[in-house]
Amino acid sequence: MRKYKFLRSRHKIEIDITWQCNLKCFDCNRCCGTSPTGERMSVDQIERFIAESNLNSYKWKIIRLVGGEPTLHPDFPTIVRLLLTYRDSFYEKDKPKIIVCTNGYSNKTKKILSELPCEIIIDNSNKSSENVAHIGHFNMAPIDIRDTSKDDFTLACTNTTYCGMGLTPNGYYHCPVAGSIDRIFGKNLGYKKLPEQVDEMDNLKQEFCKLCGFYDMDDTKVVPSIDNIKLLDSQPTISSSWKQALRDIKIQGRHKLTRY
């Protein structure tokens, strides 16, 4: 049982600008392999994020552009320019790092990365196949594998504090992976505006952490390191709740979540 609470970050955010990907990796924490989709954020949504950040006095230290594979977004260069303009216009000092998280897989992606402004940090995992080592089984819901009746899921895990918030086409979440859980389970809980600074988003933690394999993966105050990336699977590892949710999507179609 956790003895401490991981607080929602007010300084870091991961923006899922697209869930389209050129790989279908096992245990992808955006479900790009188990439930691929081309859904993406619009330029207007990015502009809204910038406006809300200023209005609510958020001072970001790290803004990550993720996916899917972010370079597949047709407006990727425009989104990068918008964020650079935001950084240079509204921060006199302590400007946020803008990081593009990419798999570096295709020649098209490599070309786009080579053309990025030098101010952009590239976090390239350099994947060469879909069978990649990882740190835990994202699709293993705690409620499926043990008694969670005494768990306080609002305590969350390291992702909430150290990785930051998440923003997807469907809104804001307390952590980067909660939005992908929402699109599979259809709870439609993404915040449609940037939460106030005092809001811990505990209602989202209560709903999504019980479905997230990362919740049981770490019970420390330390970010999982590269030394922990040891799991290598030949097929996805999925618990019963996830299997049912994915089966429902195949039969009934995708959940129609409200867009941000």
UniProtKB/TrEMBL annotation:
Cofactor dependency: [4Fe-4S] cluster
Alphabetized GO MF terms: catalytic activity; iron-sulfur cluster binding; metal ion binding
SUPFAM superfamilies per UniProt: Radical SAM enzymes
Keywords: Iron, Iron-sulfur, Metal-binding, S-adenosyl-L-methionine
InterPro entries linked: Aldolase_TIM (IPR013785), Radical_SAM_PqqE_MftC-like (IPR050377), rSAM (IPR007197), rSAM_sf (IPR058240)
Radical SAM core domain span: 20-113
Pfam families according to UniProt: Radical_SAM
The protein's name in its UniProt record: 4Fe-4S single cluster domain-containing protein
